[in-house]
Structure formats: structure tokens, C-alpha cells
Amino acid sequence: MGNMTVFSEKSQLHDIRFGTDGWRALIAKEFTYRNLEIFLDGLALYLLENYGSDKPLVIGYDARLLADKFAQFAIDQINSWGIPVKYIDHPVPTPVIALAAKEQGSCGALTFTASHNPPEYMGIKYIPEYAGPASKSITDKILEQIEVAARKEFIKPESVAGSELIEVQEAYFKHLRSLIDFDTIKQANAKSKTKLVYDPLYGCGRNYTNKLLEELGFELITLHDLRDPSFGGSLPDPSEKRLGELREAILDSGANLGAANDGDADRFAFMDDKGEFYPANKSVSIILKYLLEHKGYRGVIARTVATTHLLDDIARKFELNTIETAVGFKWLCEVMLNEDTVVAAQESGGMSVLGHIPEKDGVLAIVLMAEVLAVTGKTLSQLWKEAQDFVGKEYFYNRLDLHLEGEGKQRFMALFTDDMKQVGKFEVKLIDRTEGAKVYVDNGSWFLARPSGTEAMCRVYFEGNDKAELDELVAAVSKLVEVL
Predict the structure, then answer these.
(1) How is 354-417 classified by DSSP, letter by letter?
(2) Which terminus of the chain, N or C, has less C-beta within 10 A?
(3) Distance between CA atoms of 294 and 198, rounded to whole angstroms?
(4) Residue 441 — φ and ψ, nearest 5°?
(5) Alpha-carbon distance 421 to 439, whole Å?
């Protein structure tokens, strides 16, 4: 989503800005009830223009501080526009709310979540009735209406609508049972008693991911199984450095697999039986190979520009095509809405599969990986080796995170000009501008430099087939950016 600043009739800054997936901001600084009211008025104008007042808006929230209070405020505000609301009264994963938007005959859904951001952040995300992220054309129209709302250039309807509490968990579970081979997993676990450790990081995955894993017969250890708006004093991001307790629990219990969700359970990460971290680049490759080999899925494979090319190599083995998109699941959603898509994946831990909603779903990813282990009887390390052997290459990854904002982001991107010919000892062969600068070098490696759309951060993603040479490339780029 592009950035836009909304001004009131007195030209006061409101700081309502859209990143790659909704509006996120600091609670009590930019994310205030005043700004939220402007946002909701603008959204109501958009909904009335495009849906009328017959279809309800689904409203939910995650486990963050004040999320339930903001959600209640939104219910009242949307009702005051004559738009009915169907609401959920407990912290709920974003993909569950997305499915409800589709199944409830709604005009879309609104969820209060800042995903994996620190606890002092709040966010709000509109999900259209097709159950995936809002497209840029939709968010541009909403932003236009937010500007109208900020200037009070509207006449509010006199009618007031009501709200209805809905149950969403069982409908979501039923849908996943149509995608996951529950009977086969139960039979396998009855014999093997596969042990699994799950960490919701105090977020919305609790009471969803763990319940499904228990239903499947896994011997399950669940960490941080309570709501804590401070997320244990950290942030609900399933990155390797934040999963130390998961690793300890795996090693102490002799578990076969460790899994974690982020704060709103639309992202995921895994650890194997030795406590080795498996990011999305590895785990999605394993899942893709399984879906093609064992379940006979066919269609295109969609991935963002930052995501592993191993997916491309696996696809070619099955004579399938890969579609590369800009970063953000909204672009993958567009592919899923128009093509039979076996897997849609992003490097940051989001994925969906054929037959599922066009929204990233960390609950689905974990239950699906559990199926892979149960059906194959293999460890993650064995499955990862098989995926690489299948295409005849090894794959290695790295990433640099630079805390930059404003002019710092501009200086960062200015380093990667079209006339760049050399990075260290590596010759530049191509620079792709789909998003940021994706630089291909002469040994087959590549790196992507891009500013974050939601954080004061710039990132550089790396991939190559030779670890020593990739390390050299990382060192060369690190030297390039050290002037910032």
C-alpha cells in the first residue's frame, strides 16, 4: 500500500499511513481513538458506496493491549453508520477472521492487529469479502474516503444498525479438515506417538493451532499458553533469536518438531528435533514438494520477490510455472484469485495453498507440516536434504536488518543504482526493480535490497548455492551499507 497522510479541516496531521498490510502505529501516539474514528468513518463511506447497508462487517481482534476496546469502539462506530456488524469476542487469528468474511456473506472484515510488531503497536486491517488482503485499488479508494472523513465532508445516515456475536472456530476447523489428511495423521500418530512442541508466543494461535494438533493425536507441549499483551516483554515474532525457549523444550522433551506462530497467527516458523531453525524458505519448499508428490496438486507456484528460488526449481521438475510478485501477500492474493495456485509463499513466514483462502495462514502451515512428518515418517532435516537433492543444488540464505527511516531509507536505496557493475568481487548481471533492487550476480547468487513498508527498517535478503561465496557477498554488501 502506498503512504498517505490525512489532514483534517484545520490541516492538522493525523498520521494515518498504510504500509504493506494495513495501518500500524504506536498506541497513544498515532493510533488514537481520534484517528481511529476518522479511519472508521472513511471505511464506512467506502462500504456504503460499494456494498450498501445490507451486508454486515465482521470485526475481530488479536491479543494485544486495548485490542478488544478498540474493536468495541469500531462496532459502535460502524453501527452508527447503519451498517450491521458480526463480531468475535475473543482473540482470533487473522486467517480465521478472513474465512469468516467469506462465509458470513459480509462486506468484508476488520481486525485489530499489529501482527509481529512490538507490544506498544496497534494496527487495523480491512479484509474484503473474498477473504484475502485488500488490493491497492481498494486501499486507495479507502484512503480517499478517509481524507473526506477527516475534513468532515459527509452527511451521516440517520439509521443505526445492530451487532451480532458469531462463532468462528468450528467453521475454520471444518475447513482445515477438508485440506489436511486428518485420518491419516491420526492413524500414524496412534502408532508413532509423534511429539511436538508449540509456541503461540502469547498470541492468537493458542486455542487454535494447539487444539488442532491435539485433535490429530500429537503428544503436545504448549508454551506460553496464556494471553499476555506484553508478549513476555518481547515481540511476537517467530524469528530464531526469539525461540530460545522452544529450542530448550524440544531438546529437553525429545520432541520430533517445534512450531511457532506470530501474534495474529498468520505467520509461522519451525525447528527440527535437534533445535535447528527452519525459516519459511526451507519449510515452504518441503511442503511444496510434498503437495506435488503425495497429494497430486497442480497449478502455478506464487512467491514474492524476496522468497527462495528453490520453489522455482521444484516447480520446473513438475513442469509447472512460477509467478514472482512484489513483497506483500496482497500481490500473492491476486494470483490466487486468478490462478489455481499450489502454494503462495513469502519469505517472512506467510503461505496459503490450493483450496484455501487467499490469505497467509500460520495455523494451516503448522498443521500441514505436521501432516508431512506424520505421512513420511521423516525428520525436517531429512526432508530438507531431499528437497535440495531433488533439484540437484544446495541453498543458503542470509539477511541484513538495518534500522533506518525517512531520509535514511532514501540513502539506502540510492546505493543500488542501475549503473552498479560490481559488488566486491562479484559482477552484477541484472538489477530487477519489481520492488526495491534485486541484484543478480555472476555466480548465480542474488540479493534484494528494500525498505520495509511497516517498520523503520531496511532489509537485504540473500540467496546462493555456495555458502562460502554467499558469505563473501554478504560481507561485500555489508561494507557497502556501513556508510549509512
Answers:
(1) TTS-SS--HHHHHHHHHHHHHHH---HHHHHHHHHHHHT---EEEEEEE---THHHHHHHHTS-
(2) C
(3) 25
(4) -115, 175
(5) 10
Q: 277 is written with which cell numbers?
A: 531453525
Q: What is the pTM of this model?
A: 0.93
Residues belonging to the chain: 484
pLDDT tens digits, 3-54: 433 433 443 446 777 766 788 899 999 999 999 999 999 999 999 999 999 9
Q: What is the pLDDT of residues 82-120, one digit of tens each?
A: 999 999 999 999 999 999 999 999 999 999 999 999 999
Domains and CATH numbers, the chain: 23-166 (3.40.120.10), 179-391 (3.40.120.10), 396-481 (3.30.310.50)
In sequence order, the 6+-apart residues with CB closer than 8 A to the CB of 28 are none
Nearest to 297 by CA among 327, 318, 326, 279: 318
Residue 341 to residue 284: CA distance in whole angstroms: 14
Q: In which residue are the cell numbers 451486508 written?
A: 55
CB 369 within 8 A of CB 60: no
What distance in Å separates the CA atoms of residue 131 and residue 163, rounded to the nearest whole number?
A: 21
Position of cell 475481530? Answer: 60
- What is the H or E stretch that residue 426 is in? strand 426-432
